[in-house]
Hints:
The protein has about 100 residues and is mostly helical. The chain has one domain. It is built from two helices and two strands, in the order αββα. A hairpin with a 6-residue loop joins strand 1 (about 30) and strand 2 (about 40). The radius of gyration is 13 Å and the shape is globular.
Amino acid sequence: MSDPVQGDFPTFVEFCQRPEPKYAKGLRGKFQCPCCDHFTLSEVGMYDICPVCFWEDDGTTGEHGFSPNGSPLAEARENYKRTGSNSERNLPHVRLPKPDELS
Length: 103
């Protein structure tokens, strides 16, 4: 998955004025989670929480992407590959992807 929003934002105002992120959209109309790559998000950058990996999507998925309930995106992706969650502490909140969330 490409990183739709990249860069370092020195101020909150600049972060809020960032370009609109663009995520892949699945066959069922859901958007792809930047952490686990499953199609679970109803909207982009609106703080939806992915039920598969528990990533909270604030729309920043570049090098400095960070979930308020987890860790930096690169670390969260590695955690998901290893444990099935964006962080071990969030394991109780995740589930396996449903078939319609795979594409």
